[in-house]
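Sample pair:
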Amino acid sequence: MHQLHFSAIIRAILLALLTIGTVGAQDQPDNPTPHLRHDRHLHRHNPSHATEPPSDQRFFTTRSSDVLLPLPKEEDGFVFGVFGDRTGGPPEGINILADAVRDVNLFEPDLVMTVGDLVNGYNQPAEWLVQAREYKAVMSELLCPWFPVAGNHDVYWRPVNDPNKPRTEHEEHYEQHFGPLWYSFEHKNCNFIVLFADEGDPETGEKTFSRPAAQTMSQTQFEFLQQALERGKQCQHQFIFLHHPRWLGGNYGDDWQQRIHPLLKQTGNVTAVFAGHIHYMRNDTRDGIKYFTLATVGGGQSERVPDAGYLHQYHLVTVRPDQIALTAYPVGEAINVREITVELQQQMLTLSRQRLPVTQEFVLTESGPRAGLLEVTINNPSDCPVDYRLTPTSHDSRWTITPEQASGQLKPGESTAAKFQAGYLGEGVDEAFQGIDLVLTQHYLAQTMRYAVPTAIVPVPFRLELDSQSPSEPNRALALDGQNDAIAIASGALQLPDGPMTIEAWFKAESFSDRVGLVAKSENSEFNLFVSNGRPSASVFLGDKYRTVRSRQAVPTGQWTHVAVVQAETTLTLFVNGQPVDSVPLESQWTRKRNALPLYLGADPDPQGQPMSHFHGLLDEVRVTSAPLYQAKFQPQRRLQATDKTVLLMNFDRVLGPFHLDASGRETSVRALGGATLVEVP
């Protein structure tokens, strides 16, 4: 055990310099980040932070390394928050303010500043006081101190012609309940100055932000600003806060440009000025002084272009001796790390796997779907309330579905049935026919946050009533691109009992990759057929683990191959082109571990039930039988037939709209994913 002393550091530095000097140009890649698709995260606004070499006092290791790890320089720094307008929106906006308080408490800044419009105001004292108490009650939940700024909503009285209206309107009430109209304070060698931008017209006393005469700083407040700036002249930074962004001019006039900005510039250490009022984000820089305007935290918000600053948000400002960093956070987006427990994750995963059982299915005939009632069950298996919205939708505009959606909130353990009346205006099933998808959005309502559950899209199953296949119809196979194409069969549609079974398929690969699912329902359970790197293998989860059989030989591309896995009473055997290539013993009491994931043809399900490990080539004659069909060497039939034990047979010879037809006699409705199509084969 030893410390890394300075002698070792010097050796590391010399070695690093020598290494840099001896690396030839041919050893340096032209592009060290070939997989980087953008440079937005490389855009920086400030110089790199100051660092210093490691010392015995600050750095310790029991290992030696040629890499010198610089340490951040030990200097004072801190974070403060800034809130925008609360008012101008509905009374329920107070909940957004509460969300912002909750978010900021997760960061625990040193302090929070506001930029005015704390109450809706424009009223009489009794109502004003109720709103002030509400705002202060919410802000009192902050872990850090907060400092108010007065805005027009905080001091304007209504009605304007009220004979009892004081000349200063609500200014006295504000100072009784929030604090002085202007003030300054110091924190960690920084000076914070709060200004009042609604003193009103000095001649008439009128308070308005639409006339320059009422937006001129009084001499009294100007002298305060001079004194406050002088008090903070030796600080590293001075920050200014007011409600109206007077530097924008227009109805604010030119008082800021003519008197205030020159004073701030002359002072030399004013870093930034913050305001609100306009309800959208903006930043301007003049003579090195940064001017920031915030949007809202519960105030009236158009949300015209949220990503461009029209949203509920707050700023967090990181202060360092020579620079500041700013980030805007949408209200409610901060994640409470302590709330993300294993239990919460498991419940949200359960919600994300909703299968939306349909208690009344549609019938699809070759003349078209029959109109009927669609009834869907929505469950909340979690221990928190869940908001849901279920929307039936289709890419085929000929469907008529009423109502357009069902929404509500489910208590823990509660279920509900959503009912939709659906009809079809088309004549028959043509190439443009599409079925109905159920789109389910859910929010898990935890104690401190709404957690969005990934949107679930579940196809509505159809019961097929079809004419018999004509013997003259050509033989076809399913063409899969190896990237997005697959066939998905709902778990509930595959009625495969425990015990003996045979899973088989014909395939003609165009290429193989390291992991290729051919027929798979696996995810640490169930069964699969794989052809990874061209080597067929199969697994069935029996007892406590997968029982696996493999071929040592790879099969060629461009050639039809038959593969089958047979689970008998005491053996599991893999056949390739009718030849047994591997076998393992089984015990008769073992049962198959189940899952609720889809069975994929041409892919393998991931833990969320989405397809992965896609097959590239042609797939044909996929048959699942609840019996051990093959005991020894056999000659595979190129076109398979259903038996009384067949639970799925995909000949891939016929489609009805988007549905591939199951020839097992069970008429399972099967949809293709991606661009999977049928092609004629010999």
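The CA atoms of residues 115 and 243 lie 5 Å apart.
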